[in-house]
């Protein structure tokens, strides 16, 4: 079920909008821009209904912050505001919003526009999935890895939490394919768990690698080489 986040400092309006949207998805809310950003970073929703004018961090700032964050850039935003002038609408669209609804809110109009954005979001997610996963193995490809690594690196920088990188390679995998054939090499089952591999031509030269957020650094024995220790402390290059 899609998740819809309502962001408005007017609790009464949230109480009006939430029942209207309950049939379209799980409704959450935040009453300030700062609280909204916290929720967004913890669990990105499928759609944000955003008030433009709020004390402190207003809706335009929230929308701009979302568009600058790779993890939130694809989340659609609909501004819901008392402003009905052209300048406010243009400002919202320039900030990165997908749509604009004026208060008082018409329920049929709200449901139609929210449904449209949720449908577009679903199609976009499916397109992104097919573009970032290998068709044979259903594993994430290099483009997906680059996006996830950048996202987790930014999260680690922002929160101060550790970030580990796991590199997994299978030695001499060509021998497996030569003996059992490429179809067997495309999907071996080891230890009761299915491990789907890339085709042998890729597996021979491209080990599997993925970031694992929120992992503590491994304990090192006194015999750990100085090189390994220095490598662990070295910051990851940003470019």
Describe, in plain words, how this protein is organized in 3D.
The structure is a single chain. The radius of gyration is 23 Å and the shape is elongated. Helix 2 packs parallel to helix 3. The chain has helices at residues 11-21, 33-42, 59-67, 86-95, 107-132, 142-159, 173-180, 182-186, 200-203, 226-233; strands at residues 3-7, 26-30, 47-50, 77-81, 99-102, 163-168, 189-190, 193-194, 208-213. The model is unreliable at 188-206 and 224-239 (pLDDT under 50). The longest helix has 26 residues, at 107-132. It has 239 residues and is an alpha/beta fold. The strands form three sheets. Strands 2-1-3-4-5 form a five-stranded parallel sheet, sandwiched between helices. It has a two-stranded antiparallel ribbon with strand order 6-9.
| Main sheet makeup | 5 strands, parallel
User: What's the total count of β strands?
Assistant: 9
Assign a percent range to the helix content.
Answer: 40-55%
Round the Cα radius of gyration to an integer and report it.
Answer: 23 Å
Give the rounded overall mean pLDDT: 79
How many separate helices? 10
- The secondary-structure element order is EHEHEHEHEHHEHHEEHEH
Shape: elongated
> What's the arrangement of strands in the largest beta sheet?
2-1-3-4-5
Structural class: alpha/beta
Strand content: 15-25%
Distance between the termini: 37 Å
Q: Would you identify the regions where 5 or more consecutive residues have pLDDT less than 50? A: 188-206, 224-239
What labels would you give this structure?
single chain, 9 strands, 239 residues, disordered C terminus, five-stranded parallel sheet, two-stranded antiparallel ribbon, alpha/beta
């Amino acid at each position: 079920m899609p998740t819809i986040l309502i962001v408005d400092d007017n609790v009464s309006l949230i109480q009006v909008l939430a029942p209207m949207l309950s049939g379209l998805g799980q409704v959450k809310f935040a009453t300030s821009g700062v609280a909204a950003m916290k929720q967004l970073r913890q669990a990105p929703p499928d759609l944000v209904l955003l008030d433009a004018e709020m004390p402190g961090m207003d809706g335009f700032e929230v929308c701009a912050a979302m568009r600058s964050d790779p993890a939130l850039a694809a989340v659609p935003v609909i501004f819901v505001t008392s402003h009905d002038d052209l300048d406010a609408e243009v400002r919202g669209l320039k900030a990165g919003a997908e749509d604009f609804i004026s208060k008082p809110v018409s329920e049929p109009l709200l449901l139609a526009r929210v449904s449209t954005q949720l449908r577009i979001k679903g199609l976009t997610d499916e397109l992104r999935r097919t573009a970032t996963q290998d068709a044979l193995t259903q594993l994430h490809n290099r483009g997906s890895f680059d996006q996830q690594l950048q996202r987790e690196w930014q999260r680690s920088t922002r929160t101060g939490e550790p970030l580990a990188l796991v590199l997994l390679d299978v030695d001499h995998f060509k021998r497996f394919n030569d003996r059992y054939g490429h179809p067997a090499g495309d999907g071996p089952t080891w230890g009761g768990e299915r491990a789907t591999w890339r085709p042998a031509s890729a597996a021979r030269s491209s080990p599997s690698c993925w970031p694992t957020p929120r992992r503590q650094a491994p304990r090192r024995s006194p015999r750990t080489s100085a090189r390994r220790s220095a490598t662990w402390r070295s910051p990851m290059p940003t470019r």
